[in-house]
Amino acid sequence: MMDKSGKIQSLQFKNNEFGSNSNLGLQWSIHDGNFYPGGGLFASVSSTGNNDNGGFKLPFADLLIKYISLPEGCKGSGMAEEDLELVNTKKKQGLRLKIKISNPSLRRLISGGIAGAVSRTAVAPLETIRTHLMVGSSGHSTTEVFKDIMKKDGWTGLFRGNFVNVIRVAPSKAIELFVFDTVNKVLSPKHGEQPKMPIPPSLVAGACAGVSSTLVTYPLELVKTRLTIQRDVYNGLLDAFVKILQEGGLRELYRGLTPSLIGVIPYAAANYCAYDTLQKAYRKIFKQQKIGNIETLLIGSAAGAFSSTATFPLEVARKHMQVGAVSGRQVYKNMLHALASILEKEGIQGLYKGLGPSCLKMVPAAGISFMCYEACKRILVEKEDDQ
After folding, report:
1. Residue 128: enclosing H or E segment and its boundaries?
2. pTM exceeds cut of 0.90
3. Under CATH, domain 99-381 is a member of which superfamily?
4. Averaged pLDDT of the chain
5. Which of 131, 121, 340, 155 is nearest to 222 (CA)?
């Protein structure tokens, strides 16, 4: 101990107690055989003082006991059972990363952007193969397209246009997930209330999310498709934008927007409604409020598989319209014209060309996206002690 002059006073042993020669009446109970992990003896503060010397209780004794990790089998004097349980629980939880962001809208946007970037990069090769299969530019099967890309461009060819894809998908997914979460919370009835509409709120919220993100980021989607298909025409993102504007003006950047909007409504509505429904079913069946990362990955993947299969013909028509008159291809007047022309030339299988790699890409992409989004929301918290 240190006195007023700054000198360290000696401690004495008194009947299994440490006593200070300052006569303050401090008592330290030694638990034989128990040692503090750092190597020293662990002493717990006694709750009573020496009555002969006026009696004195060490200030903040409870805090000292609460926030020092106890060795196994050691219990502090006067320490409540719930305090000991709190310490042990904190030790078991381990280190958790928390980033404090007070604005809930900003938390959702950041989480959505990260989720979009991670999920799209993970499945970029499958996206490239799927696009080539849809327009038939490098072969008529996944194996043929893969061999053609590897022969011409190598591994980098599988990630061609991925930078543009990330730039497009990150804000798109951020807007999409933000709108879905916001609208779904507004439309969903609170506990004990009657439903506000006859259809599931997640269905409407999903459609709103898809439309909002498409309107904002569609030009980047078109440029990404052109960069993937027309390998030698453009020298990068900026060059593609300039040349497309020179060729057809601003309207050209939104070629195929109508089928995209029509296609994204059923896809996004089905995707988010399926995800929300499966989440609720999981909580009800397993009686768990929190859903782990693996479970979220599986639920999101199942939702992606369902929505992708149901709306795939619209996606094929959209891709054909985006490519336009490249390499002498037919220019379609509208989505119905595109669907009818593809059906006439290639039959029903033409409307589902590329469904296999599409599901291989869309299913894990949806699962990874939802998993990253939920994980980021747990990391980005309003307060440091939020769970």
Report:
1. helix 124-135
2. no
3. Mitochondrial carrier domain (1.50.40.10)
4. 74
5. 131
